[in-house]
């Protein structure tokens, strides 16, 4: 005689299947929790690394620029030493300083800096800073007649406006 109840067998099978399913879901949940914890740790490590790299860039960002400027600085120092020599000639000093100036212009051009045109051009408040106006019969009003300090653009952005003297209409006589 079979004392097993078919319903009991079915309940036991369903119960073990449910237990297995719960265990499988718990394992999957634990795996997701572990992956999430690793992802959070990876993100935090990434943030720290990016912050450290940004600090390093701020700290040492000028190194490349300094390396390119140092030869001009060295030549300027040599010109100063040569000027202090008893046998120094003014022409040689001027020539040396002009060479240093040319080095800087080449350096700036290599970086994309461009000198803002001044004398003879119409005054542009976006690119020029007027120091004063001078009456002039040689230039139309609001024309740059003298450059006091060079201005520069870098890739179409004004880095420093040119300081200029601008013409005004001549005074009535």
UniProtKB/TrEMBL annotation:
<comment type="function">
    <text>Participates actively in the response to hyperosmotic and heat shock by preventing the aggregation of stress-denatured proteins, in association with DnaK and GrpE. It is the nucleotide exchange factor for DnaK and may function as a thermosensor. Unfolded proteins bind initially to DnaJ; upon interaction with the DnaJ-bound protein, DnaK hydrolyzes its bound ATP, resulting in the formation of a stable complex. GrpE releases ADP from DnaK; ATP binding to DnaK triggers the release of the substrate protein, thus completing the reaction cycle.</text>
</comment>
<keyword id="KW-0963">Cytoplasm</keyword>
<dbReference type="Pfam" id="PF01025">
    <property type="entry name" value="GrpE"/>
</dbReference>
<dbReference type="GO" id="GO:0042803">
    <property type="term" value="F:protein homodimerization activity"/>
</dbReference>
<dbReference type="InterPro" id="IPR013805">
    <property type="entry name" value="GrpE_CC"/>
</dbReference>
<dbReference type="InterPro" id="IPR009012">
    <property type="entry name" value="GrpE_head"/>
</dbReference>
<comment type="subunit">
    <text>Homodimer.</text>
</comment>
<dbReference type="GO" id="GO:0000774">
    <property type="term" value="F:adenyl-nucleotide exchange factor activity"/>
</dbReference>
<dbReference type="GO" id="GO:0006457">
    <property type="term" value="P:protein folding"/>
</dbReference>
<dbReference type="GO" id="GO:0051087">
    <property type="term" value="F:protein-folding chaperone binding"/>
</dbReference>
<dbReference type="GO" id="GO:0005737">
    <property type="term" value="C:cytoplasm"/>
</dbReference>
<protein>
    <recommendedName>
        <fullName>Protein GrpE</fullName>
    </recommendedName>
</protein>
<dbReference type="GO" id="GO:0051082">
    <property type="term" value="F:unfolded protein binding"/>
</dbReference>
<dbReference type="InterPro" id="IPR000740">
    <property type="entry name" value="GrpE"/>
</dbReference>
<comment type="similarity">
    <text>Belongs to the GrpE family.</text>
</comment>
<keyword id="KW-0346">Stress response</keyword>
<keyword id="KW-0143">Chaperone</keyword>
């Amino acid at each position: 005689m079979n004392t097993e109840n078919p319903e009991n067998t079915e309940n036991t099978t369903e119960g073990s299947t449910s237990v297995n399913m719960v265990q499988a879901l718990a394992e999957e949940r634990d795996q997701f929790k572990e992956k999430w914890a690793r992802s959070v740790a990876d993100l935090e490590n990434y943030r720290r690394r990016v912050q450290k790299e940004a600090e390093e860039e701020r700290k040492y960002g000028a190194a490349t620029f300094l390396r390119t400027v140092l030869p001009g600085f060295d030549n300027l120092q040599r010109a100063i030493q040569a000027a202090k020599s008893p046998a120094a000639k003014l022409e040689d000093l001027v020539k040396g300083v002009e060479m240093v100036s040319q080095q800087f212009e080449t350096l700036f051009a290599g970086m994309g800096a461009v000198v803002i045109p001044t004398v003879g051009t119409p005054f542009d408040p976006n690119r020029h800073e007027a120091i004063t106006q001078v009456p002039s019969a040689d230039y139309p009003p609001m024309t740059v007649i003298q450059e006091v300090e060079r201005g520069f653009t870098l890739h179409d952005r004004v880095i420093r406006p040119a300081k200029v003297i601008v013409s005004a209409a001549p005074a009535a006589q």
